[in-house]
């Protein structure tokens, strides 16, 4: 029976270790089978966008080519881990074309066993291993999907624990102590896993195309699906994912564990350690020889392998469930130790199977056989966990007790368990449509997160997009300075340091300095024979007048150096007299001591995003506006336009909402409009002078509309400055006409161009500038 | 007789062109023969530091290998041109090892003709040309050196002049008009050159090793030198640098000029256009076929070829002389036109020769033969120039009239002429020692300008050094943004943009961003296995205390995040109890909400300048100090130390003067000293706590003292950040001991390291960091 070790608890209190106790590292791995629009297993290849299956640390395939595995790095908090998994789900979902992630651990409608595609790994060892598994277990069984919950205690905590009486008195070496801690927790988890299976199981129903033998045993729920009356998790049942016959491996110590596993492999009962489908594994750093490394390095973390995909939640698990599992693991640490012989293991297996077949109401098998029921024991566990929380976690007490209360309710009322809810929901529709609807709903939610990297929303949008693209193709990232959007991207041996998405090693320092300095940019462009608006600055009328002969046949603009509202500006179109010229300067000098003369180029401004030898996207920005429909008022049209999920506030979205503010009202008034006016159908009403996105402007993609002649000019300008990544701003008179000597003009070259505006424009398609940066940094993504 | 063209002057006044009239572009070319310490012609090769003789646009050889030619670019002002020539002289002088620039147009003591080394150009055409010249004129004559004064009117001025009645009425095309203007000035200059030769001639005496025939004609001045009684310029005499027999080429028009020269070449009277030793040449852009280009492009500038090197001035000419020549050229433009037939040319030659042999007092040969003397005509010229100044240059009138007055004095009193002064000075010593003393004096002045690029003193010292090094090896430079120290360096096809000397294309943007961010730098170094001081920041005592086990066996420093005067800092050396640890944090938390814990590394801080794969220099900075001599007071010692020309004020010198200020006085007082104390011999008295150069600290070179193990670490650190050029700051416990695991520590990596401190340290040698940057940008400088 569970029972807290109060001596240990006292040590923790005495050494002020309760805060450290709850620290740890969390990781999730999960599989989802891909299905087509109709919910049938997708037999298409793993999307190429995810790169090489063996290299991508985040997105891989599992047994089947149709089974995507998503792996989070380990994080210091459940929150981060949860959100990274959500981001992975978003990234994967976005890439699936007409396919969806099946949200259940139980496979969807399956073809014949041999038609299920085994993952093609292009690696003889991996391919051979999968072929052997297919033979041994059948392909259908391998399609059962689930979640692995990985956990390690905080290293500093364990070291401090070792310093207390609990540790160094009994263990000579820290490593020995640490192994003992993890094996203890593993033993307890194995013993009490029935409770976690009860509380997390969420796959009570399965499709009738599943393994015949299992389908035959079950009862039909609807014409196409089957269940066993009390079963909450097919995956954890005898029809689930377990070794052919029970294997008993000692969890008493590292030595015994490694010894027993080695024996089983030698006896060819296991193909490799990987085939040891224990519900709980002790794991070490990844390597070629897992057992050797385990001995050498010691246990690094625990892997809980029996958690179902929960279709009630987008990523298959809720944050609360993750927190409960964490509390339960801590409880397993602080519980008194109990022996765990082969007999105990068999009892644990028995309890496991009984939970599956009879639910929580059955009796608990134990040496004492004191007639305790599972329900009663479960409630004792909850009680002791409550005590543990009260003693050690005063700060988070309320939140934790709330979680425990909810789990207690599930124990007392089995209709509240996940499995019961899922089954009841299925009964209201069908196994297929229930899960397919969920799949499509979650896919939609992911699409709405397109421009956002969940868990990294504090970063600039451009960086969020770049990191998502990196994760997608398996490039690892590390935050170097989060506030500065400074990251390290790693693929194999290659490290790339990137700040704000576009500040990379691809551009040299001097190139950036050229772009940063507008005077120098102009000189460099000129030097490379590229036309920039000619211009001069004058401090006196006399000086200005001496230049008349140079400009008399040109279109020019004469303007004060600083000007507002266009005051003091004169534009001449080729024909003007010396007197006109003088007057224009006289006017301009009334507004500023310095007057500028520049060649005048009419037209609209376009942003060319140049990357490498390519114009990746071209954008034109339009001031905040609405288009009338003859029915709604301007105010209504604004509110409606603001509903676009791409529009938000505070630069967290690709577009900003149009404000209903004073500036807009003033602008309307100046143009004889008001909020209540109803514009005619098709009439465009502007609400701002400037075209900034930050004041609700629209970004409109023109990449396909603008002739190559302009694109080539933009590339030339970038090359003149030596730039690999830059934003070239150009005035173009008329995009219907090819570039000539005088119908365009460069405004400036920018060295840190935003990329999200080209990926999520108001109008136009995603130009994938994020992917292009990665192509330039790491080479194109070819599988 | 000279006579101003008042019609033209009125046009200039009417069109407000008087300001533009004085604009123009100025260039100087000059030769100096190299001599050894004893004033004998140096027969060593042209220094390799100046790169390929044919490629270097600034520093070349002329006829002889011993004859250095220095060429300024053209500038908009006399001042810039003058100063650039001074800089060239500084650069060349600094590179000459035990040799000096002979400051006279007349050669020094010469060996036999055949022993004079002809310049080796590694170019068959160039080599052959020089061999032919040697045969035709003798090598000694070719060693006569001088100054070419290049001038062009402002292009905009000429265009505006063309728009007036002076121009477009008579000439259909602007180019035609422009050519006519330059030919007019050239004709007048040739006619009146006798006056300029009188006012600029400065080579009245020559060595008796000069051409025998000439020596025989002269009178001995001292045992080793010779003169002709009234001769002021040997170079302009019949013993000077002129064609074998007089050649008459028409200056009436471009067509006639080109025609006549072509004829002379066809008739083999000239080897090439280059051999046409006319005192005034019309020139165009440089090219393969000068005459063709002259016709095609038109005249670009005038070259006055008859100016002597003036030993009275460091660079061989004074700014006043340059200004007078400019005024004279403008006068030649505004003077009435006169015919210039072959007869006129002969008369001009006659006047030229007569000036040389008889001085200014002789009669002037003219068609009219009205008995005018040269003196009288010269005075008329000055008078008319005064009138010209008064009419057209009201702003600069006083300065110009002053210059004209001084020249007038020379006309009236021939003993005030340069030649007379030089001869008189020579008579007080000797031809040899007078010029050699001057040579050595000017070399010393150049050495004192070592760290300074004359004319560019507004730039940072590092940039001044880099540009001087560039000029030395013939890399052209262009200021892109002077305020920002942003330059373009060009060699052949290669362009390199450099800001502040060390911001170049050699470093990638991401590398700079890494260095700029101290947190990221530390992470990157750690990632590459490089030791940085471990450290943590704490916001609470509890948090801090939990780290005790990690540090209990380390040397650490616990300090408030911000601290002054070392308050709140505790340093532990390995052995400390948990109580000590806690107390240290408690103290630190009294001063700041954030407390830092860092590994403690004792020692001194050194700056490693890493460039490429090399540590170029290592510097240690010492606070402002003086060393006692048992005689002088601290104040006297400071004043004495401040006399070092490397010490100045306001960062215009490599070191700053030690202030006799309050801070220093307070520091002395705190250390029981005062300004009037007399320190013992060898006693070091510090005047500041900090070691900043800006407060008078000393920079001490340790490049040769510090073991390679530390240098390798610095290089490793630079490589980790990906840096090509950086300053690595390292704490070293004891430089007598090789680097171990724990006796050094990195402080930071800086991306814009000053280079001048390694070139001009207080103690130690010039580490030529400027040269190293150029090596990295353009490859090493091998001839």
Structure at a glance:
Chain A has 783 residues and is of the alpha+beta class. Helices cover 39% and strands 17% of the residues of chain A.
Description:
Two copies of one chain form a homodimer. Chain A has 783 residues and is α+β, with helices and mostly antiparallel strands. Among the domains of chain A are: 6-449, Creatine Kinase, Chain A, domain 2 (2-Layer Sandwich), CATH 3.30.590.20; 461-499, no CATH class. In chain A, 39% of the residues lie in helices and 17% in strands. Chain A contains 28 helices and 26 strands. In chain A, strands 1, 2, 3, 4, 5, 9 and 10 form a seven-stranded antiparallel beta sheet that branches. A five-stranded antiparallel beta sheet of chain A has the order 24-19-18-25-26. In chain A, helix 12 (319-334) crosses helix 15. The two termini of chain A are 53 Å apart. The A-B interface holds A 16, 19-20, 156, 159-160, 163, 480-481, 484, 486, 488, 495-499, 503-514, 517, 519-520, 523-524, 527, 542, 546-547, 549-550, 722, 751 and B 16, 20, 156, 159-160, 163, 480-481, 484, 486, 488, 495-499, 503-514, 517, 519-520, 523-524, 527, 542, 545-547, 549-550, 722, 751.
Largest sheet of chain A: 7 strands, antiparallel
Q: How does CATH name the architecture of one domain in chain A?
A: 2-Layer Sandwich
Q: How many DSSP helices of chain A?
A: 28
Structure class of chain A: alpha+beta
Nearest-angstrom radius of gyration of chain A?
Answer: 33 Å
Task: Fill in the keyword field for this structure.
homodimer; 783 residues; alpha+beta; Creatine Kinase, Chain A, domain 2; seven-stranded antiparallel sheet; five-stranded antiparallel sheet; 28 helices; elongated; metal-binding (chains A, B)
